[in-house]
Design a protein that fits this description.
By secondary structure, the chain is an alpha/beta fold. 34% of the residues lie in helices and 21% in strands.
Length: 479
């Protein structure tokens, strides 16, 4: 009979919450949640709330309709709408106007809810999970802190915090988030920011009417910058420059009346990733020719990839590892109203686009940052001087992760794939060290499966954690 058991989860977002639901804890055990936002377990950075006085509190919307995150969230949103609506209306009247057709129809599944509202839902689930353990006699502790090192000896795991404090645990789950944004040299300064999330207050303090803000990258995070600017200044004062390597995200919006999802009929096998992607492009083009928008093919492609498996489509492991970033680019999404505002402000000359490859950033002084880039089409080198810079590029070609995960990779406890673009865990999410599991959007291989799409939404993370737990439970069961 084992003695009291201490399980530590490092992380407080969706990945951590998904892992928390899979623990085999009994009366007398201890569970510790360690993270920067541990008190709001489940929200993490992506779905965190903002202070009530912050104009951008509900500015950021989910990039997919609520129904894509499961029926439970849709029911929760509808049940709590009487409380949610007046809070949103103070901050985002434009959003409520845009989604009015869905709300009048009572179709809450078609609504792209504010991320902070989804965070409230996740925090409620997190509280329920922890309360369940407390009811069974487990001691639960939520601690605010940053883990910087993880070691193991004969007494179990030894976790060192940024403060120098050491925590002991018998088993550890690491869920510290996805890859960090691509960096460009000296790209941080008084008015140059390496990410938007968590820096909103500092960015808002340096924004000036009619002063140019430059986004390094044209994905959904760039649309969030636009929403932030709309929240803190008059639209006629917005001056936004976007340096994009590829196309912008496509709106993912469910029309009224709803259209049926479409599913690809691709079976393979294909000789290489390029051939598979060409087939995907042809299938997408065929759907578009029939009048489908991205709202119909995307769910079907996600289900198709999960059910078919890349191993069926591509016999070569090396070719399977090339697919995820390419598929992700094809199915990038952004909220419809943000993209509509983007198009409107660009037509008015308030948003300027540059297409090219950023090569270096020099954050020299306050309100002066130089950006070097190779312009698309001409291939000529150019330089831009701008006032405020925000990195909205995403992970890009560099694979950078948090300090703790980097240490696990360096020590050989966590494996990276041979293309240096993602992490590998076992079928039960186990690492190379017994008692240590890992889950985050940085994972691209689970057991023998190479993932076709990144684990960048809550539904995918929860499904993977549940499946991994079933595998682990089966392996522990006597034959």
């Amino acid at each position: 009979m084992r003695g009291p058991h201490h399980h530590l989860i490092i992380g407080d977002g969706a990945s951590a919450a998904a892992l928390a639901e899979t623990l085999a804890l009994t009366s007398g055990d201890q569970l510790t949640i360690l993270g920067a936002n541990a008190g709001q377990f489940g929200k993490g950075v992506a779905y965190a709330d903002h202070p009530g006085h912050a104009p951008w509190r509900y500015a950021y919307l989910m990039n997919s309709p609520s129904g894509a995150f499961g029926g439970d969230f849709v029911e929760w949103l509808e049940a709590n709408w009487g409380d949610i609506r007046p809070r949103i209306a103070v901050y985002q009247p434009r959003w409520l106007d845009f989604t009015a057709d869905h709300l009048v129809a009572g179709d809450f599944g078609a609504v792209c809810a504010p991320r902070a509202v989804f965070g409230d839902y996740l925090a409620e689930i997190g509280r329920g999970t922890l309360a369940m353990y407390v009811e069974t006699g487990v001691t639960v502790q939520q601690r605010t802190g940053l883990a910087t090192d993880l070691a193991k000896d004969e007494h179990g795991f030894r976790i060192t915090l940024a403060t120098g404090e050491v925590i002991r645990a018998d088993r550890v789950d690491v869920a510290t988030g996805g890859p960090s944004p691509q960096r460009y040299g000296a790209d941080a300064g008084p008015t140059a920011f390496t990410t938007l999330c968590g820096n909103e207050q500092a960015i808002a303090e340096v924004l000036r009417p009619k002063q140019e803000v430059t986004c390094l990258g044209g994905n959904a995070a760039m649309l969030d910058v636009l929403r932030l600017m709309q929240s803190v200044m008059d639209e006629q004062d917005i001056r936004l420059r976007v340096i994009a390597r590829g196309s912008k995200p496509e709106p993912l919006i469910w029309a009224r009346p709803r259209k049926e999802p479409v599913t690809p009929k691709l079976t393979g096998p294909y000789r290489d990733a390029e051939t598979l992607l060409a087939a995907v492009d042809a299938e997408i083009a065929a759907f578009r020719a029939e009048g489908a928008s991205m709202a119909e093919p995307r769910p079907g492609f996600l289900d198709w990839a999960a059910e078919t498996g890349l191993e069926t489509l591509l016999p070569s492991l090396s070719e399977r590892r090339k697919v995820m970033p390419q598929l992700e680019r094809r199915f990038r999404r952004g909220t419809h109203d943000s993209l509509a505002d983007y198009a409107r402000l660009r037509a008015a000359g308030l948003i300027v686009e540059e297409h090219g490859e950023i090569t270096w950033v020099y954050a020299e002084t306050e309100y002066k940052t130089r950006i070097r880039l190779k312009r698309a089409g001409t291939g000529t080198n150019g330089e831009i001087t701008t006032s405020v810079v925000i990195n909205t590029f995403g992970p890009g070609d560099q694979f950078a992760v948090d300090l703790l995960t980097s240490g696990l990779i360096r020590n050989g406890w966590l494996l990276m794939n041979d293309t240096k673009s993602g992490l590998i865990v076992g079928p039960g999410l186990e690492t190379e060290v017994e008692g240590l599991r890992y889950l985050s959007p940085a994972v691209t291989e689970i057991g023998a499966e190479v993932l076709a799409f990144p684990l960048d939404d809550v539904s995918a993370l929860a499904a993977r954690a549940k499946a991994a737990n079933q595998i682990a439970t089966h392996e522990r069961s006597p034959s």
